[in-house]
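Milestone M4 deliverable, item 7.
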Amino acid sequence: MKLAYFETFVLLSRLRHFGRTADQLHTTQPAISARIAALEQDLGVRLIEREGRKFHLTSAGHAALTVIEKLLIDYERLKVGFTDPDQLPMTLRIGAIDAIVQTWLPSFYQKLRDVFPRAQIDIIVDTTTNLLSGMRDGEIDLNFCLDPVLEEGYRSFVVCTYAMSWVASPRLVEAGRVYSVAELGAMPLITFQRHTPPYRTIAPYFQDESVLASQLSFSNSLPAMIRLTIDGFGLAAVPTLCVARDIETGLLVDMKVAKPLPPMQFIANYHPAPGGVLMERVVSLAKESASDFCAAIDPAKAWV
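Output delivered:
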C-alpha cells in the first residue's frame, strides 16, 4: 500500500471532485480512480459510492478517512522531527479579507518568513464568498474571513473580533451629535454587497427598528468604501481599527449613534491533513499574531 493512495483519498474526500484532485496532484482522473480502487482492494471495503458524476463516502469511507488523516499527520510529525524547519520547502496559500490585511496580516507574514524561510507564501485577498470557494476547491490552505467552512474535515475558529463604527466625512455629519437609526437610514450609505456576511449584519440593524435604508451604494472592497466615505459620498459601517488613522487626522468622524453596531467576528478556516503538523504550526502562528496585535491596542476596539 502506497502513501500516495492515502494522500489521494484524503484530498479527494476534501475536494469532492476527481478533476480538481487530479489537478492538485498533477496527474489524471483515471490515475486518481486507479489509486482509490487499489486502496479499496487493499482494505477490502468500498470507500466511495458513485452517483453519476457525484460521489459520497460510505460508512467505511468515513471511518477510513479518520484513521488515514491521523496516519498522515503522524507520518508528517515523524518527518518533521528529522528535519530542520528552515530546510523544509513548502507552499502556503493564505487567503484574507481586507480588514485582516490592513491590521495583523503583515506581522503574521513576517512570522511565517522567520519560521519557514524557504516557504513560498502566496497571499490571496478577496471576499469571504470567494475565499471559501477557493478553499473548497483546494486553492487555499488557510483563510481569514467572516464565515466558517461547514463541510466535513475542515476546522474553523474565531481568530479575533473587531468593534464596528459608523463613520462619515465631517462635511456630511456633525461631530458629537447622537444619530438615531432613522437618521442614519435617511442618509446615503456605502455598504458591502448584498448576500455577504457584513451586509447580513447591517440589514437587521435597520430592519429591527422598522427603518428603510433606501440610499445604498454597494462595494466588495473595504478600501474603496473608506475612500468613498472620506470623499463625502455617504457613511459606512466599518471596523474601527481600519479607519483609526483617518479619524485621528480628521478625515472621518467616528459617529455617535443611539444604537451601537454589533462587533464583527473573523473566522480562520483550514484543513488539517495532509501536511497536518506544519499546518498546525502555521495556525499557531496566526493565533499568536492576532493575539499580539489585539494586546497592543485599545481592548475596546479588538480582542481575541
